[in-house]
Design brief:
Number of domains of chain B: 2
Oligomer: heterodimer
Radius of gyration of chain A: 24 Å
Number of helices of chain B: 12
Radius of gyration of chain B: 23 Å
Largest sheet of chain B: none
Order of helices and strands of chain A: HHHHHHHHHHH
CATH architecture of the largest domain in chain B: Orthogonal Bundle
CATH superfamily of the largest domain in chain B: MetI-like
Order of helices and strands of chain B: HHHHHHHHHHHH
Number of strands of chain A: 0
Largest interface: A-B, 85 and 82 residues
Strand content of chain B: under 5%
Structural class of chain A: mainly alpha
Helix content of chain A: over 70%
Number of helices of chain A: 11
CATH class of the largest domain in chain A: Mainly Alpha
Structural class of chain B: mainly alpha
Largest sheet of chain A: none
Strand content of chain A: under 5%
CATH architecture of the largest domain in chain A: Orthogonal Bundle
Number of domains of chain A: 2
CATH superfamily of the largest domain in chain A: MetI-like
Amino acid sequence: MNNSKINRIKDLIFQYVGIICTFLGLIVLSILLFNIVKEGFLRIDWDFLTSLPSRKADKAGIFTAWIGSIWILVFTFLVSVPLGVSAGIYLEEYNSNSKLSSLLELNISNLAGVPSVIYGLLGLEIFVRGFSLGSSVLAGSFTLGLLILPIIIVATREALKAVPQSLRAASFALGATKWQTISYQVLPASFGGILTGVILAISRAVGETAPLIVVGALAYVPFTPQNPMDEFTVLPIQIFNWVSRPQAEFSVNAAAAIIILLLITFVMNGIAVYFRNRWQKKINW
Amino acid sequence: MKNKEYFIELLLKFSALITILTTISILWVLLSESFSFFKEVSLIEFFTDTQWTPLFANKHFGILPLISGTLLTTLVAILVALPVGITIAIYLSQYAPKRFKQVIKPLLEVLAAVPTVVYGFFALMVVTPFLQNIIPSMSGFNSLSAGIVMGIMIIPFISSLSEDALSAVPKSLKEASYAMGATRFQTSFKVMVPAASSGIIVSVILAFSRAIGETMIVAIAAGQQPRLTLNPLVPVETITAYIVQVCLGDVPHGSLEYKTIFAAGITLFVFTFILNNISFWIRKRFREQYE
């Protein structure tokens, strides 16, 4: 066998290794989904969705957990989206001071790399104790809001960058002010991209567990929150609680709750991908 | 009109400055609480004692077992994700048809979108029992299955960023290599990977930093026993899992036990901060290689 043949065989072998590796992750994902559905699917019924937590596995439900997740989702949205989009607009459209801008950029990249559990410690000291919010929906939402802020800022900037300069120039030429240009031209044109980023960031917040445990969200809350100052639990914490119990019946509950959590995550990601594709198709600069 | 414009700009600037305020708050929280921790526990004990037992009667405050637990799970994760992730990146950028790549890349990114508590369940309930069939001596909580599952989770971090780096290499390099009669395999490893090395290294560092800070998988599947060991078959505890363990319990505010989570937190923060900034530096230093 000559060198050229050996090289061709190596090339072919690597091609197959590549295919195997590419599908490895997807195969593991399928095994994960299969096991969870097999274990938990039959546990899901109306009672499971509308029952309060309980010491008895077959009576326990996820009512407080998913209602809590919706509370957290709404308030995290209210905290992070206005701040994140505004910061993104400032960095992309206004910031002329290059020193401040490079400081802000480095800072945001660093914040994106801070582990989520550290945000929990921040929330525990600043919001739970400093602002005396206690382990409330509000304290949890502020914490998660700061956690996903870098994601929203980066997504907003990417979307604004995709709007061509000629659009801004045309608006200025017609005598519009800077803010008029941004609010009437640039923001509507980049809406799809910003929305995609926001949905992805919020879906990340729905799955977060560690920071909420650190700010003191409890697994056992026998009531749903009535106002933002109430204590709460969320789906991932309920799952964590059930997973940590040794009895097998609770792991069935955990699997059932995971199906609901994954459903929420995948639907949100699907919507985000849909918006991204639609937005990319519609606008051809 | 002019006032309104000015006011809006101020409002937007304020929003951007919130991010600086967040960083300052994180540093302040971690530093102030650990400062009062280190008034009671010496730095020498913190870094040299080989036991971490703040919640027991006989208290030891050596961070080494938590660091070793963190690095052990991270190492397993990287050993899984590094070869697989880079192979995927090379395959997608050099071998796969364009259409295939467009379908497979978003699918791979689903791996990173699955909530980590779900991976924890998977590691504990599926991977550990499976591995116990092969290695019967393996304990129910261990760093091996937690690490493997964490590795699967971070595959898309490495594969996506490395693939971007490989695709950014100018086409002329690839074509020159083919013109010399090189195979795709030779071109990939002798030309493309070296040319994209800075981007690939950045992706690996970011995945490493992500694995160090990962919490729920290790809290569920790796156990809660701080132990200075390199054996991946026994229960360990990571820095992140310790913080979660303390927060689930009833530790009074202001006590020394309470302060330990901030001392552990700042150790974790220093690790990820250094790794992230090395990656920023590499990216900045080697960005304009081909322009």
